[in-house]
Amino acid sequence: MTDLPHSSHWGAFSGHWRDGTLTVRPHPDDPDPSPVLGNLPAAVAHPARVAAPMVRRGWLERGPGPDDRRGRDGFVEVGWDEVLDRLAAELARVRDEHGPAAVFGGSYGWASAGRFHHAQGQLHRFLNAAIGGYAYSVNTYSAGAAEVILPRVLGPFEAVVRRNITWEQVAAHTDTVLAFGGMAVKNSAVGAGGVSRHVEHGAMRAAAARGTRFVLVGPLRDDLPPDIGAQWLPLVPGTDTALMLALAHTLAVEGRHDRAFLDRYCVGWPTFERYLLGRSDGVAKDAAWAAGITGLDAAEIVALARRIASGRTLVTVAQSLQRAEHGEQPVWMGVVLAAMLGQIGLPGGGYNYALGSLAHYGRARNAVPVPTLRQGVNGVRAFIPVARIADMLLNPGAEFDYDGRRHTYPDTRLLYWVGGNPFHHHQDLDRLRRALGRVDTFVVHEPAWTATARHADIVLPATTTLEREDIAAAGTDPLMIAMHRLAEPFGQARDDYAIFTALARRLGAEEAFTEGRDVRGWLAHLYSRTQKALADLGSPAPDFEEFWAAGQLRLPVGDDDGGILRAFRDDPDGAALPTPSGRIEIFSATIAGFDYPDCPGHPAWLPPADVPTARYPLRLVANQPATRLHSQFDFGAHSAANKIRDREVCRLHPGDAAARGIADGDVVRLVNARGACLAAARVTDGVRAGVVQLPTGAWYDPLDASQDAPLCVHGNPNVLTRDVGTSALAQGCTGQHTVVEVERFDGPLPPVRAFDPPVPVARPGG
Ligand code: PGD
């Protein structure tokens, strides 16, 4: 059978059926396809798929209301008409009795590639059209701290991250890439909306071949590829700000900083310099001071400072660094360090937050807009910083700080989740379980029985992209892909769009939601915006049918002008940045005015509260997985093949393993004050001593859901992580780090049941 084009967040591909099996092939132009494509074929008909609408027995029996049995109750299979009638009635009840702010539709998550069927976009559009809006969330789990601090001190997130340094510039100009947190290829293999060519590893190789020196600062050696000759500085996790300060100190005392740049384009250097040199607090932030915090050698720190001052240097800060306590500080201090070198705005130099953290960064932008689905107007103003979800549910009406203001948590009665997996992305999962017990109704559309679906009251089976038509496109990828349908819907699964259309009909909002279009009608409509922009540019602008038949369309690429981060250097007053002062804010009067002890007016070393103890002596790094995107298709072949005895793999240093009698391949138990999980040990010197690394994404699998803080037998690190914000400024996710003990698990090994679907129970009274 013919190959049909399709796409995913981790790569464009085509699929065809042979002997009843779906075979997936990477896009032929992709020089470095992601092995994660190997997870897709299993999605078509895996037992973990949700086959029919299901309603929690207790919700059917007693109706909406708080219930701590969520996650431990049985599910009753219910027909589509009945479940849609019940859900529409419940949405109307909550809207009428409590107002739309009582519906939380933030529904964070990566969902799937495809501009039309994007799950959150569909949900938001539906809630706006059908009930007048919803309480929402701001920012992301990826970049919660950076999204708030960067616009205040340097420029808009998009300008700093996406429209800044390109990989071509690195390969052509950069002498030293100082990569805090590295630039792991597993992360840049992913880009929301789809990636047609994976270029990052090739660009790093080309740069290294020309002579670029890569310096990896971080506890894990494989956060830069092995074949680019990187220098590895394995510092203590979470101490990058101290290292940056010491580099800055050496630059300052040796007069290697660019005073002219600091005077012309920055504000606050004198105040910061007093702190750096110890004049304001009596502590000089010198290399010896930082050595005691970071575990690095003081002479090595001084040598690194001299090196970065000696040529074109690019400072990058990986997203992971700010997904931690005081996560704003390394992002801001990276800006200050680069400002001291005076190269912000020069090709291949300066500062590019998160270069190498996603496939969108370091690439040229398209010259035409890609299709987007309008979401309508949200009539509700109540919001939360995204990672404060459990706080919101546990403390309705309580006040919280965010970015200089006090806000109030809405009183959530109905929680609606599509395209995300809080039991993957949130921290302190036992607390999340308790928080979910507080709402009246929890609705989830899911292709698969994730733990989130298992905690819902109403579970509606959703199609995957493989089962529907869509358009894949991203603003920094030149290929727009016609995603053809590769499989029939699994069981009774429906598209999110079809589910919302049926609900909108029941709520009298069908026309407002659908605008009279079916799926094909929407795809052609969304495509027409790009088609018109192409025609306006004089580029080939095929009509929708031609695009669909061709399977892809190459979009023209815009000029690489570097945007405001290049242009500011030419301003006659040196004050052209969109910060309050127009300059790079080394000291921010605005942030100082907020008076937050955990985020003062200039970057600073703020010792963390969550540090190793005698009981929990190891530092856990809970980072992004290499074998799947987040938790998606964890049952797929590639993810499964990389587990050991069905468990996620954690890595630890030989010294730490030997001290605990742990051998490579042993099943271990990771434990701390919040919970425990099993994992399989990989013993390696690629991890700093004192550190254990367990990636996110293994589906939460409680041994006994009736217990508090049950053991997760599969290896989900978010049973261990802390549910606290980065600071009062950004309130971002801090899931990257915590402390644990690790011990060999010698008990009988409980089976992994995360992928077994619940067995339907009888209807109450039935
Ligand atoms: P995914 O596994 O991508 O995780 O968290 P996120 O919730 O995005 O979840 C997407 C879900 O959507 C899947 O269950 C999938 O089946 C479902 N889905 C996909 N397509 C569709 C669709 O079309 N319709 C419907 N209804 N459902 C669909 C990711 C988040 O985790 C992120 S972005 C980051 S950066 C964070 N990283 C960390 C971390 O570094 N460390 C820790 N400890 N925790 C983290 N959590 C965060």
From TrEMBL:
Domain Molybdopterin oxidoreductase: 49-505
UniProt keyword Hydrolase present: no
Domain Molybdopterin dinucleotide-binding, first and last residues per copy: 618-734
Domain Molybdopterin oxidoreductase N-terminal: 6-44
Keywords linked to the UniProt accession: Metal-binding, Molybdenum, Oxidoreductase, Periplasm
Signal peptide positions on this chain: none
Cofactor(s) it depends on: Mo-bis(molybdopterin guanine dinucleotide)
Any single Pfam family the record assigns to this protein: Molybdopterin
InterPro entries named among the record's database cross-references: Asp_de-COase-like_dom_sf, CT_DMSOR/BSOR/TMAOR, Molybdopterin_N, MoPterin_dinucl-bd_dom, Mopterin_OxRdtase, Mopterin_OxRdtase_prok_CS, Prok_Mopterin_Oxidored
PANTHER family: TRIMETHYLAMINE-N-OXIDE REDUCTASE, TRIMETHYLAMINE-N-OXIDE REDUCTASE 2
Family: Belongs to the prokaryotic molybdopterin-containing oxidoreductase family.
Protein name stated in the entry: Molybdopterin-dependent oxidoreductase
Organism: Pseudonocardia acidicola
